């Protein structure tokens, strides 16, 4: 008779579903538990959460929010005015980009900030600068929405 086991992703440790472990043909009563599986069932479903296997138990984590892919682009003027109207100096953005280690990523970020005429909400530069300024995705979304009218 098989045993139900609960599987998790090898790198993210997120719960991926259940499967059946077979009984060992050599040792009756001993089950062959696959790698990245446990006999411990995850807790009941919690809306807006995932479960991760951590330290021998399932831990609930809120599903990270994703920036809206449907937000219109901002002009260079709008994004800069939006930052200033929310108390951020443009020098803070320049400093955040300046803190990136030397290389292609830093050069690309500098070019994007200095020369882009529009900014998409999902562009990696927005997430990087937002994190450096201590902003959550929700705060960036709110600032983005307000900047649309500038």
Task: Kindly estimate the percentage of residues that lie in beta strands according to DSSP.
Answer: 15-25%
What is the number of beta strands? 7
**Count of helical stretches:** 5
Share of residues in helices: 25-40%
What's the order of the H and E elements?
Answer: EEEEEEHHHEHH
Largest sheet report: 3 strands, antiparallel
The backbone outline, from C-alpha atoms, is elongated
Give the overall average pLDDT.
91
Structural class: alpha+beta
- Biggest sheet: strands side by side, in what order? 2-1-3
Cα-atom radius of gyration: 23 Å
List the quaternary state of the chains.
single chain
Termini separation: 67 Å
Uncertain runs: none
Question: How would you portray this structure in words?
Answer:
The protein folds into 2 domains: 3-62, no CATH class; 74-147. It has 5 helices and 7 strands. The protein has helices at residues 76-85, 90-98, 104-115, 124-132, 137-147; strands spanning 3-8, 15-21, 37-38, 49-54, 57-62, 74-75, 118-119. The termini are far apart. The model has no long low-confidence stretch (mean pLDDT 91).
Structure keywords:
single chain, 150 residues, alpha+beta, 2 domains, three-stranded antiparallel β-sheet, two-stranded antiparallel sheet, 5 helices, 7 strands, 34% helix, 21% strand
């Amino acid at each position: 008779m098989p045993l139900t086991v609960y599987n998790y992703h090898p790198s993210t440790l997120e719960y991926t579903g259940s499967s059946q472990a077979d009984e060992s043909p050599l040792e009756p009563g001993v089950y062959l538990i696959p790698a990245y599986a446990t006999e411990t069932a995850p807790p009941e479903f919690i809306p807006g959460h995932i479960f991760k296997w951590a330290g021998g138990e399932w831990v609930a984590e809120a599903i990270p929010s994703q920036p809206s892919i449907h937000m219109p682009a901002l002009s260079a003027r709008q994004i800069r005015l939006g930052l200033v109207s929310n108390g951020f100096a443009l020098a803070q953005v320049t400093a955040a980009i300046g803190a990136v280690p030397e290389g292609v990523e830093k050069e690309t970020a500098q070019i994007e900030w200095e020369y882009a005429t529009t900014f998409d909400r999902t562009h990696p530069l927005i997430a990087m600068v937002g994190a450096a300024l201590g902003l959550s995705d929700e705060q960036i979304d709110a600032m983005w929405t307000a900047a649309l009218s500038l």
